[in-house]
Automatic annotation (TrEMBL):
It is found in: Membrane. Residues 309-495 form the Bacterial sugar transferase domain. It comes from the Bacteria. Pfam families: Bac_transf. One of its GO terms (molecular function) is phosphotransferase activity, for other substituted phosphate groups. GO terms for cellular component: membrane. Its EC number is 2.7.8.-. The keyword Membrane applies. This is Sugar transferase. The chain crosses the membrane at residues 39-62, 74-94, 114-133, 139-159, 315-335. InterPro entries: Bact_transf (IPR003362), EPS_sugar_tfrase (IPR017475). Residues 1-23 are annotated as: Disordered. The lineage of its organism: Bacteria, Bacillati, Actinomycetota, Actinomycetes, Micromonosporales.
Length: 501
C-alpha cells in the first residue's frame, strides 16, 4: 500500500494525432503483453494435433469396415484425413476468432467459438462431399469430426488451466492495466479485477480525472498520478491496457479522443461502466443516432429455461441416488461405527421464496454437537450467518473426512428430487438465524443448490459479504450454461478439498 501525500502535477500533453494511417500489411505491435503469441502458437499446434489424432483414431477403428473414401487412392485419403482436414479446422477456428487474445483464458466465448467452428467444419465437409459426389463412411467422418471437437475443447481446457496456474504462481502472462477515473471508482475496479489472479488483469497505476485532492493521505495499492498524458504514462509504467472506470466513461468526447490517441500504439482500451456484477449476456449495446446505449435485460428467473433446469435437476438427482446407493450404505456404516446415533442430520433451512424445508446431510458431528455449540461461539472463524471452525471439536474423524470430500452433502439429492433444492444455486441458510434483510433476501428468488458460485470460489475461506456477493451475482446472471460450468468447476474444488471444513 502507498500513501498519497505529496504530488507533482504535470500539465497534460495534447495528443500527437487523431488517428493513424492504416495499411493492410502493418499491424500495431504490443509493447509489453506478448504472452499471447507463444500461447496462440501452442493452441495452433494443439488444435492441429487434436484434429489429426481424431482422424487417426477414426481410421484405426472404422477403416477395416470401410476405408472412408471408397474408390480413392490411399495417399489421397491419408492426405485429406491427416493434413487437409486438420488444416481446415485451424483455418475455420481462425476465421471464428478462436485465437483472438481477447477471448483466450477467460470466460466461455473461447469455447463457444470452438463449438461454432465445429459446426462450420461439419457443414463444409458435408457440402464438399455432396459437391464432389464423394462416398464417405458416415461413422468414420462423424467420429473424426466429433472426436476432433472434443479433443480441441479438452486441449483448450488444459491450456487455460496451465495459463491460470502460471498467472497465480509467478504473476506473468497477464495484462498490465492503467486505471483512469476517480479514486473510488478506480479502487473498486482494482478490487474486482484482482479477486482472481488467474484472470490475468494486473493494475499497475491509477490516473485520476478529478485531481490529487481526493487522494491526499489515502493508502493506495498502486501509484497514483494526475495531469499526465495517459499514453505516455502507460509507456512509463510498462502497461498495455487502459481501463476507463465509472463516470470517466461518461465523457464521450474525451473517450473518443483517447481511442484515437491509442490507435497504432498496441495499447488496449477497455471501459468499466458503473454497472457491476452484471454479466455480458444481460448487457446489449444498442446504438441510437450514434449514441451507444447499454440495455440491461432482466435476469432469467422464469420461463422455459427454468423448466429445463428443474427437469435436469430431477433426472440427475434420481439417477444419482440410484447409482450412489452402495456408497450411501458404506458411509452410513462408517458413521454408525464412529459414533452411535442417527446416520442423517436434518436441519431447517430457508428455501425458494422464503419457504422452509429440512435439508438432508450425513451426520458429521457427535450427537451432542448442538449442546456444545454455545461454548464455541466465541471461536467462530467466519462472519455473517455461518459458524465455521477449521478444527471443530464436535466433528468426529470420519465426519472430518466426509466434510473434506463433500460426501456429507450427497443426501441433498433427496431435496433436489423433491424440488426443494437445485443442483446449482445459493447455499441454503439455517432458518433460525432470523429474517433475511436487504440484499440477502434476493437469494431466495431461486432454489438453493447443492453447489454454487461461492463453493467453487473459496467455500468457507470466503467472508460472509463475499459469499453473499457471489450468490447475488449467480441469481442475477443465471443460465443453464453457467450451471454446467459451475458443476464442472465443483469437481476440481471437491478433489482439492479447497475451503472444506
Amino acid at each position: 500500500m502507498r500513501h498519497v501525500d505529496s504530488f507533482e502535477i504535470q500539465p497534460p500533453t495534447p495528443p500527437s494525432h487523431n488517428g493513424v494511417p492504416r495499411s493492410g500489411w502493418a499491424r500495431a505491435r504490443r509493447r509489453v503483453s506478448r504472452w499471447h503469441r507463444p500461447y496462440i502458437a501452442i493452441l495452433l499446434l494443439l488444435d492441429f494435433g487434436a484434429a489429426a489424432l481424431a482422424s487417426f483414431l477414426a481410421v484405426q477403428i472404422f477403416e477395416q469396415a470401410d476405408s472412408g473414401f471408397k474408390n480413392s487412392p490411399q495417399v489421397w485419403f491419408y492426405t485429406v484425413a491427416f493434413l487437409l482436414l486438420p488444416l481446415g479446422w485451424v483455418l475455420i477456428l481462425w476465421g471464428n476468432r478462436a485465437y483472438d487474445r481477447r477471448y483466450l483464458g477467460l470466460g466461455p466465448d473461447e469455447y463457444k467459438r470452438v463449438i461454432r467452428s465445429g459446426v462450420a467444419v461439419a457443414a463444409t465437409v458435408s457440402f464438399l462431399a455432396f459437391a464432389t459426389v464423394t462416398s464417405l463412411s458416415r461413422w468414420t467422418v462423424g467420429f473424426a469430426l466429433l472426436g476432433a471437437l472434443m479433443l480441441i475443447l479438452l486441449g483448450r481446457m488444459i491450456a487455460r488451466g496451465s495459463l491460470h496456474a502460471l498467472r497465480r504462481r509467478i504473476g506473468q502472462a497477464g495484462h498490465r492495466m492503467v486505471l483512469v477515473g476517480t479514486l473510488p471508482e478506480c479502487l473498486e475496479v482494482f478490487t474486482t479485477v484482482t479477486r482472481n489472479p488467474g484472470v490475468g488483469l494486473v493494475p499497475v497505476a491509477i490516473h485520476l480525472t478529478d485531481g490529487y485532492a481526493a487522494a491526499r493521505g489515502l493508502e493506495t495499492p498502486v501509484p497514483v498520478y494526475a495531469g499526465r498524458d495517459v499514453l505516455a504514462l502507460v509507456r512509463e509504467v510498462g502497461g498495455d491496457t487502459i481501463a476507463v472506470c465509472g463516470s470517466a466513461s461518461a465523457e464521450p468526447g474525451e473517450l473518443r479522443r483517447l481511442a484515437w490517441q491509442l490507435e497504432g500504439s498496441g495499447v488496449d482500451l477497455v471501459v468499466a461502466p458503473q454497472l457491476t456484477d452484471i454479466a455480458g449476456p444481460r448487457v446489449h449495446i444498442r446504438p441510437i443516432e450514434g449514441l451507444p446505449l447499454l440495455h440491461v435485460e432482466e435476469p432469467t428467473l422464469s420461463g422455459p429455461a427454468l423448466l429445463l433446469k428443474s427437469l435436469m435437476d430431477r433426472v440427475a438427482s434420481g439417477l444419482g441416488l440410484l447409482l450412489l446407493s452402495p456408497l450411501f450404505l458404506a458411509v452410513a456404516l462408517a458413521i454408525r461405527i464412529s459414533d452411535p446415533g442417527p446416520v442423517f442430520f436434518r436441519q431447517s433451512r430457508v428455501g425458494h421464496e422464503g419457504r422452509t424445508f429440512r435439508v438432508w446431510k450425513f451426520r458429521t458431528m457427535y450427537v451432542d454437537a448442538e449442546e456444545r455449540l454455545a461454548g464455541l461461539v466465541d471461536q467462530n472463524e467466519t462472519d455473517g450467518m455461518m459458524f465455521k471452525m477449521k478444527q471443530d471439536p464436535r466433528v468426529f474423524p470420519v465426519g472430518r473426512f466426509l466434510r473434506a470430500s463433500s460426501l456429507d452433502e450427497l443426501p441433498q439429492l433427496i431435496n433436489v428430487l423433491w424440488g426443494e433444492m437445485s443442483l446449482v444455486g445459493p447455499r441454503p441458510l439455517p432458518a433460525d438465524d432470523g429474517d433475511f434483510l436487504g440484499d440477502v433476501r434476493r437469494r431466495l428468488l431461486v432454489r438453493p443448490g447443492m453447489t454454487g458460485l461461492w463453493q467453487v470460489s473459496g467455500r468457507s475461506d470466503l467472508s460472509w459479504d463475499e459469499a453473499v456477493r457471489l450468490d447475488l451475482y449467480y441469481v442475477d446472471n443465471w443460465s443453464l450454461a453457467y450451471d454446467l460450468s459451475i458443476l464442472w468447476r465443483t469437481v476440481g474444488v471437491v478433489l482439492a478439498s479447497k475451503g472444506a471444513y
